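pinging the channel bc i need a second pair of eyes. not urgent but kinda urgent?? the chain im working w is below, pasted from the shared doc
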Amino acid sequence: MPTYRAPVKDMSFVLNEVLNIGQYQNLPGYSEVTPDLVSAILEEGAKFCENELQPLNYSGDREGCTRHNDGSVTTPKGFKEAYNKYVEGGWSGLTQHPDFGGQGLPHVLGFCFEEMMISSNHAFAMYPGLSAGAMAAISLDGTDEQKQKYLPKMVEGYWTGTMNLTEPHCGTDLGLLRTKAEPQDDGSYKISGTKIFISAGDHDLSENIIHLVLARLPDAPKGVKGISLFIVPKYKVGDDGSVGEFNNVNTASIEEKMGIHANSTCVLNYDGARGYLIGEPNKGLRSMFIMMNAARIGVGMQGLANSEVAYQNAADYARDRLQGRSISGTKNPEGPADPIIVHPDVRRMLMNAKAFNESSRAASLWCGVLVDLAHNAETEEERQSAEDMVSLLTPIIKGVFTDRGFEYCVSSQQIFGGHGYIAEHGMEQFVRDARIAQIYEGANGIQALDLVGRKLPANGGRAIQAFFKYAADIRENAKGDDRLRPFTDALGAGLKDLQSATMWLMQNAMQNPDNAGAGSTAYMHLFGHVLLGLMWTQMAKVAVDALDAGTSDPTFYENKLTTGRYYMKRRMPEIKAMLAEIEAGADEVMALDAANF
């Protein structure tokens, strides 16, 4: 059976040494975040995830969720009890605003706990994950009355939330949606329509579910300019916050999925359900993107988290499994064979995953700090700068991290050989669960188009220019130490190629937009390599400084340098092929008639 150990030490290293979150004492939520508090939160989070959630992962996948004849839905055995402990532990309000009962701690700590939850039980983590997105939208665009009515119970975890976009006839193209919202005399709306692929759409974990639903008003313009967003609770909520009668949100079915079986992905029928407009009429897409952007970063972390738990189990198996002899000479002469971890190709697969996990964790947590700065930095300039960077990094974190995370789940499964294909070892579940992250919250091809078509040219390229400056400063700070040359040289080459790719797209996409479309995924992954190389350069600088200072744990920092060198020497060179793919343009991509495929 699979196991999981939360990477608390690595998280602490990134938070306290690489990101030095102690420097942000002036920000709300950071003033009390000492290394001791960080350690306590991470340790308690690890205990909850390792002891309560991980043991339910395999059984929850086997049992799945159940829709009963009366339309109600129950989660697998043990999930409700685990969710009650999640609520009792205050985890739902960890980063939420104190005005609504939250603890107001930094988002970056929430990112750490989120990774632990996903690694230990991806399907369970999605229930509170969807709630966080809904709370974000209500917090930013809801009226004061709506905030007071819904947020306290959601922050406590007694109510959960969802986001309802997709319909049977439309996915990414939301301009085609048909769900209707008919105004009522009391200021509410009757919501009618069908939504599909609604994660956590119905369940028995909370006493109410607050759905945020995209729908059209009767006089709405066609396309995306005519979409509004509505709060539609499963059960009506009284003025005093009490839960009332059923609100005609009916669960037609639970989708039969490839993975995440313990999360109830539902088809929901809104049969004249009572809803309440959030934000401005016909401006719902803006509000929905508040949820989607938060969700996209969370989905990117699903790629990391699944890769981490798959890697851990593969590394344990490789140390124990005896098979063959080392090609460089016997390493286990007392045994009938050597452990497979001696074989270079097994180590290649493990090192690929390990190097990705550690650098993508650093990038995710950097993004968490940027989210905090975007919300709470002292000056508008600082807030805007952080928001620019979060916006730029979001499609990379979502697209690259989920592509790579799935890749490394598959390679970790490969290490098990035939046993990896057998359910009892748990590896095939990690592969199945990780696959969805490449699809939802905008499939990864959409993320690449968003990066190239929107994020790069936004504000005259302000964000990408800021990234180049930040990376150049990090590289300059690390230069001059021969131990860091593998990092600074590779990062420098990567930045040069990223600049070349960016310039090529700027010069060639205007004359032929298909050039941008054809090269967008390669560009996203090229950028992702540079981002992770940047993280490794930062971590390597911290590691050599710690070794020079006489750290009490030199092995930890030496391992960082070894893993980082692997990434810079073995993975960063892939950038050259990606640059060539981008510069090849769209001609051959678009040449065949549709009938010839």
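so The mean pLDDT is 95. and The longest helix spans residues 284-320. — does that match what u expected or am i reading it wrong
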